[in-house]
């Protein structure tokens, strides 16, 4: 055995020993998180991993994503070639050729192609980062180091194979390795010693860079190379529209203030961020100039995690894995003013919980539930939250509506209307859950009045709870007051059961999502239907006579975050509008799952925006660029925000904001507009 092989074997043993030590460190760090079951439905998890991790389904939604796709699959397809390379360093005679001449030749041919593809993709990435870098991608020297190593690996791969062909050691396979063979033809004019030197240098460069690369990953921004695939496997199947429930025991702490209070899957999220910036590209807070950046939230969590896990793991026996004890040493605060490893409380309160970050994250990181859990700590442990929320919490708890209006006024909107108010024991098909906005907000009352007309015209068996109806608690939960929300949710679920409610119609996406999704955690199992879905169903059944169509210009439709992203309802509102508006429905530039938030979600309806541009104004100006006569909405919060926005952005143009129910009810009337 020659000296160089001894050096290689020692280097190989050290590199793999260090690599597996790093893998153990990562697994041990994950185990510091709290238990969460993500091992159910393994077949479906495998399918999702193949589609989103290996298929890169979310990555390639953007045109440039194909560049990452090629780099990823270049590495996947070169695994066998690199495996052969590492083994040959110890056993020079080893080769995958025992698989057969054609399979091995095909492997070499594929490796030649993919190496060239990866080189082209790396060059493209470097040019983009240097000259055409999007605003959501930050300049990062680490990225160039990684790209440089990838480029070097590919070039060195060609180099040592070309040398082997030139020396006659791989002449049998030269026809399969067309790039290496072409390079070999250029170096054959060199002396044998020079070719040997060229081959050896290329081989050692490939070996050193490859072994260094795999050990550098856990310490770099490219840690996601190791964690993204399992993160896609352990993703939540349903949209993460709810946060974990909480048990309220005396002496317990509430919310998340330490990184290891999160679940192990949350910790895997922190490790898996690719820093691609897609989460921030459509974030309403970030786009309008506020300090919140969802990418930084996750990155700061990762830095905090590794800062705190090191002393915790060091103080525990090496064979002990499990959640960090309550008294674990936590050097770095999770919520604070240390921007490098702490998350600003100000940033936490700027989130509208619109969910755009989660929708566009290629590795399914769940940003919003983490933000809400940190809000829970600020509210229930520290009592530090925006002053405006004091009224929200007090009014919701004491009078069961955010405005603090008398509960006895909840059914006042029904005066003069044919609205059945239910009592226990009544027989009915649908409960129309009016919600706080429909009951108290003067503008939203027009929507529930229109729904009354629609339901009665269609002959639907329905009713409302009247003054017995209570707030759903959406804003309270998203603001972090889980204790009050849990009381509200349990009361409503018990009341619905007492009235025999099976099916519920809502006109507010926030109530819709809360009753449909959040209430399941409290024993609620109801068929919940948003009013746009129900209206579309009635139109399909021919139960609503449309006597005229809108004739005044163009209508643009705004997708509510809690209707669209949270519950995947996109078609029904558009189908309804197309029946009323013909072909004059115009889409905004940001629509569907890429819709831009109105700014009212996450309890922001009740808070001020002291920093940056108003979110509602940003969205209204976008709508106005389509020169609409009508802005159609399907949410009372969105209606309020657009009404305010139109006052500032219309600039003399006559633009009305109308709910879909109002548009349909108007189309049911005789006469022309």
- How many β-strand runs? 8
**Any idea what the shape is?**
elongated
How would a textbook summarize the main sheet?
4 strands, parallel
Q: Determine the structural class based on helices, strands and strand pairing.
A: mainly alpha
Strand coverage percent:
under 5%
* Cα radius of gyration in angstroms: 30 Å
Mean pLDDT: 93
- The separation of the N and C termini measures 94 Å
Low-confidence spans: none
Helical stretch count?
27
In which order are the strands of the major sheet placed?
2-1-3-4
> What proportion of the residues is helical, as a percent range?
40-55%
What key phrases describe this protein's structure?
673 residues; mainly alpha; 4-stranded parallel β-sheet; 27 helices; 4% strand
Quick recap:
With 673 residues, this protein is mainly alpha-helical. Helix content is 51%, strand content 4%.
Kindly describe this structure.
It is a single chain. This protein has 673 residues and is mainly alpha-helical. It has 27 helices and eight strands. It has helices at residues 3-30, 42-54, 65-77, 79-88, 101-131, 141-166, 178-187, 192-216, 224-233, 264-272, 278-281, 284-287, 294-314, 345-348, 356-360, 367-381, 388-399, 435-440, 442-457, 474-478, 482-498, 509-516, 531-540, 571-581, 615-624, 636-649, 660-667; strands at residues 430-433, 462-463, 503-506, 527-530, 555-557, 585-587, 630-633, 656-659. β7 (630-633), α26 and β8 form a beta-alpha-beta unit. α9 crosses α10 (264-272).
Helix and strand topology:
Blueprint: H1 3-30, H2 42-54, H3 65-77, H4 79-88, H5 101-131, H6 141-166, H7 178-187, H8 192-216, H9 224-233, H10 264-272, H11 278-281, H12 284-287, H13 294-314, H14 345-348, H15 356-360, H16 367-381, H17 388-399, E1 430-433, H18 435-440, H19 442-457, E2 462-463, H20 474-478, H21 482-498, E3 503-506, H22 509-516, E4 527-530, H23 531-540, E5 555-557, H24 571-581, E6 585-587, H25 615-624, E7 630-633, H26 636-649, E8 656-659, H27 660-667
Parallel strand pairs: 1-2, 1-3, 3-4, 5-6, 5-7, 7-8
Helix pairs in contact: 1-8, 2-9, 3-5, 5-6, 6-7, 6-8, 9-10, 10-13, 19-27, 23-24, 24-27, 25-26
């Amino acid at each position: 055995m020659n000296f160089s092989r001894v050096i290689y074997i020692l280097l190989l043993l050290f590199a793999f020993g260090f690599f597996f030590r790093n893998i153990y460190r990562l697994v041990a760090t994950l185990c510091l998180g709290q238990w969460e079951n993500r091992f159910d439905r393994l077949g479906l998890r495998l399918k999702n991993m193949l589609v989103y991790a290996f298929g890169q389904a979310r990555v390639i939604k953007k045109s440039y994503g194909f560049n990452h796709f090629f780099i990823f699959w270049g590495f996947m397809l070169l695994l066998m070639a690199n495996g052969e390379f590492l083994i040959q360093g110890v056993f020079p005679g080893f080769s995958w050729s025992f698989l057969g001449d054609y399979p091995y030749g095909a492997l070499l041919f594929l490796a030649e192609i993919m190496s060239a593809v990866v080189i082209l993709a790396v060059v493209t990435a470097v040019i983009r980062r240097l000259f055409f870098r999007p605003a959501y991608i930050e300049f990062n020297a680490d990225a160039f180091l990684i790209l440089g190593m990838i480029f070097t690996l590919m070039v060195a791969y060609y180099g040592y194979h070309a040398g082997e062909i030139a020396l006659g050691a791989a002449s049998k396979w030269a026809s399969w390795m067309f790039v290496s063979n072409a390079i070999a033809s250029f170096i054959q004019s060199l002396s044998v010693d020079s070719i040997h030197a060229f081959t050896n240098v290329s081989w050692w460069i490939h070996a050193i860079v490859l072994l260094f690369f795999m050990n550098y990953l856990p310490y770099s921004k490219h840690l996601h190379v190791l964690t993204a695939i399992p993160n896609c496997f352990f993703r939540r199947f349903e949209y993460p529209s709810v946060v974990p429930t909480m048990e309220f025991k005396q002496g317990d702490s509430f919310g998340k203030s330490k990184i290891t209070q999160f679940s192990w899957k949350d910790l895997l999220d922190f490790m898996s961020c690719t820093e691609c910036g897609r989460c921030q590209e459509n974030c309403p807070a970030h786009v309008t100039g506020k300090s919140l950046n969802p990418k930084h939230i996750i990155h700061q969590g990762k830095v905090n995690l590794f800062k705190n896990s090191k002393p915790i793991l060091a103080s525990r026996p090496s064979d002990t894995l499990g959640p960090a004890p309550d008294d674990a040493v936590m050097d770095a605060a999770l919520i604070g003013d240390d921007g490098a490893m702490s998350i600003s409380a100000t940033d936490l309160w700027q989130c509208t919980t619109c969910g755009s970050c989660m929708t566009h994250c290629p590795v399914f990181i769940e940003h919003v539930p983490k933000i809400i859990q940190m809000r829970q700590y600020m509210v229930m442990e520290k009592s530090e939250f925006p002053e405006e929320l004091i009224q929200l919490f007090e009014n919701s708890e004491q009078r069961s509506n955010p405005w603090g209006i008398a509960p006895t006024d909840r059914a006042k909107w029904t005066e003069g209307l044919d609205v059945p108010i239910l009592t226990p024991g009544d027989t009915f098909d649908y409960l129309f859950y009016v919600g706080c906005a429909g009951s108290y907000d003067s503008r939203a009352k027009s929507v529930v009045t229109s729904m009354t007309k629609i339901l009665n015209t269609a002959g639907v068996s329905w009713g409302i709870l009247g003054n017995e109806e209570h707030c759903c608690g959406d804003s309270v939960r998203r603001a972090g007051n889980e204790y009050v929300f849990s009381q509200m949710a349990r009361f409503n679920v018990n009341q619905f059961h007492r009235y025999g409610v099976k099916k519920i119609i809502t006109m507010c996406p926030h109530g819709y999502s809360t009753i449909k999704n959040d209430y399941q955690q409290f024993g609620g199992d109801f068929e919940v239907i948003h009013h746009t879905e129900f209206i579309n169903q009635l139109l399909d059944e021919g139960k609503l006579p449309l006597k005229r169509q809108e004739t005044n210009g163009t209508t643009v439709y705004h997708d509510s975050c809690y209707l669209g992203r949270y519950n995947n309802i996109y078609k029904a509102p558009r189908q309804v509008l197309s029946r009323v508006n013909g072909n004059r429905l115009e889409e905004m530039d940001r629509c569907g799952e890429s819709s831009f938030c109105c700014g009212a979600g996450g309890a922001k309806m009740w808070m001020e925006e002291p920093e940056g541009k108003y979110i509602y104004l940003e969205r209204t100006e976008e709508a106005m660029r389509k020169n609409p006569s009508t802005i159609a909405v399907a949410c009372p919060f969105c209606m309020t925000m657009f009404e305010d926005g139109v006052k500032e952005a219309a600039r003399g143009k006559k633009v009305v904001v109308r709910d879909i129910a109002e548009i349909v009810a108007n189309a049911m009337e005789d006469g022309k507009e």
